[in-house]
Amino acid sequence: MYWLALALLVALTVADAVLAVVLFDLFDERLALFVNQGTAFVYILLSLAILAFRRSRQTAARRDASIALLDGEGNLVGPLAQEQKRHGQRAAPCRGAAPRPQAIAQPHTPGLVQTLLTLLGIPLVLCLAWAFLRRTPSLLAAAGALLIIGGAATSSLRSLIDPHADASAGGPVTVYSYSILIFGGAQVFAAVEKVYEESLFRACARLHPMVMFCWTLCTQFALGWMLYPLQTLPQFGNLSLAELPAVVHDGVLCTAARGGCGADHAIIFWSYCAVDFWCYYFGLWVIQHCGASLMVLASAIALPLQQLVLCSPMVGRWSESFFWGDGLALALVLVGFCVYQAFSPEGREARLANQS
């Protein structure tokens, strides 16, 4: 289960990133926030349905709140299930703080800068885990992390060597310094949320990731509506408040291949929903069972892999030319991950704790 979950996380992260490139090209800047709101709404419905299905299969809980009743997977049900709900609610505000600012800043942050700022999550998580979870990284773990950071950074060198190659369909990026600051701030929030989630999983060992996921999505959905008026600013869409309902309406039509949108819009949107939902969930599962540090290290492997996928003909008109740095980057991140997994105390501990 341990290796399967890590492999699924990497595969889903690669597919998620590739689909995101296509999705945000089809749904232009005007619909960027709708994509985040629309996907969050779908995920809320799906997570609630999964939790309702799980609950329907559980035995009726005993009324005595002092007695814990466990389901077949060892999860608390009945009166003591309120503990899961309480911890899930505590995680929601923190986890809901990062995605929306990142979505706003992403269109005006260069791809290379996005990559480097995202990689800051690795040292940030390691430092925060040391500061708040009292977990000092070993030298081998730090060496593995540095190799992964170096490999992922190598994959982004194409932007420096040939900044005009493989320009996106949307044309060159208009860069705003404050967008870079917002994007960087979102990475700090993302690192904090991962460590905070690990602390909550430690506090409530039987907290199911789907419970935390559901409460997080509700928070993100509420925050998204509060951030929608930012699209009235010239830098983020230059829309009027009166136009915002029409933007939401147009986005809904696009998800159904109507309103001037083709079938490709609907197919990519729903494919992205299917992949992103489980990518998000398995990220929480890895944090719960293996820790936030391993989660960010495993996710970093996806960067050179997604670049290789984007160089293949399977992505059609979004295909990029092959860059030698992608192969080197993949080799470096795999070596770094093997060092962390096979030789560091943290990697051995995670494997032993999840042998089943």
From TrEMBL:
Name by which UniProt lists this protein: Uncharacterized protein
Matching InterPro entries: CRT-like, EmrE-like
GO CC term, one of those recorded: membrane
Ranges that cross the membrane: 30-53, 112-133, 139-161, 173-190, 210-228, 278-302, 322-343
SUPFAM superfamilies linked to this entry: Multidrug resistance efflux transporter EmrE
Alphabetically ordered keywords of this record: Membrane, Transmembrane, Transmembrane helix, Transport
Keyword Transport assigned: yes
Species name: Prymnesium parvum (Toxic golden alga)
